[in-house]
Amino acid sequence: MKLDITTLEGEGAGSVELDEAIFGLEPRADLLQRMVRWQLAKRRAGTHAVQNRSDVNRTRKKLYKQKGTGNARHGAASAPQFRGGGRAFGPVVRDHGHDLPKKVRALALRHALSSKAKSETLIVIDDVKLAEGKTKVLSERFGKLGLSSALIIGGAEIDANFGRAARNLPQIDVLPVQGINVYDILRREKLVLTRAAVDALEARFK
């Protein structure tokens, strides 16, 4: 698969041959869904908790005698049905993560890249560097390229001025190539890869 390379100024900078094994697959929605679910579950803190009846500091004395009152039997004021009592069946601290094989995760990333290539929302850019970290300058250049919602993947390190200028733009995410992931690819309209990112991805999946 051949794709034209552009620059931040919108000028042509040659072309690149993309590996069909990475960018030419037929996207599978089931793989992408499994991967997104795994990512979102993994980042949940799981620190939600409530006080159940054993955690509430209330008297354990029997409220009234067992028989003869006409009321239900109760043995402690910490029962959930009482005001100030413990919570019944509330959330507990737990890990929401679940297993997903490494091969499935790698395959899902290739399918996410292929989905962008198939929908023609994949852009290869020569490099992402700016002389000054000004958001206004970068916004104008993105306007020429038609980027309003995009994930931009740079090389091993992101240029400091570019990262500073891009962090104030809504719906624009910038990540180094080692941080590329399925969820961030799918949540933005376009995927922008630098030439260095393409080389790194092809070396990673070789």
Automatic annotation (TrEMBL):
Belongs to the universal ribosomal protein uL4 family. One of its GO terms (molecular function) is structural constituent of ribosome. This is Large ribosomal subunit protein uL4. Keywords: Ribonucleoprotein, Ribosomal protein, RNA-binding, rRNA-binding. GO terms for cellular component: ribonucleoprotein complex; ribosome. Part of the 50S ribosomal subunit. InterPro entries: Ribosomal_uL4 (IPR002136), Ribosomal_uL4-like (IPR013005), Ribosomal_uL4_dom_sf (IPR023574). One of the primary rRNA binding proteins, this protein initially binds near the 5'-end of the 23S rRNA. It is important during the early stages of 50S assembly. It makes multiple contacts with different domains of the 23S rRNA in the assembled 50S subunit and ribosome. Forms part of the polypeptide exit tunnel. One of its GO terms (biological process) is translation.
